[in-house]
Amino acid sequence: AAVIYILAIGDAASTIVGRKGKLKLPFNKSKTFEGSLAFFICSLPAYFFIGPLALGLAAVTTIAESIPIVDDNVIVPIAAVVFLMVVCSNHQLINLLHILLVLPFITCLLN
Question: Could you tell me the pTM of the whole model?
Answer without folding.
Answer: 0.77
